[in-house]
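The authors assume throughout that readers already know how a fold can be written as discrete tokens. The format is easy to grasp once an entry is in front of the reader. For illustration, here is how one protein appears when written out as sequence plus structure tokens:
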Amino acid sequence: MHRLTVVALLIASKFHDDNHCSNKLFADVGGVSLEELNASEIDFLFRIQFDLKISISTYEIYRIFIERYKRKELDRIVIS
């Protein structure tokens, strides 16, 4: 699971910042080989069809989820 998180953070970093950290740094910090990270990055991007944006409604669902989680209100979350 942590490999997926490292790849997702790497891709998000590249998407949002022109001056991002290197894949080597992400691999070192994430505890994976550079080769594995590079292959996982390509695989991830193809699986999501290079669609890195989300809709406002999807963003709002997750924002509310995180806010409620911070307040320990998970039992009241309703996602439709």
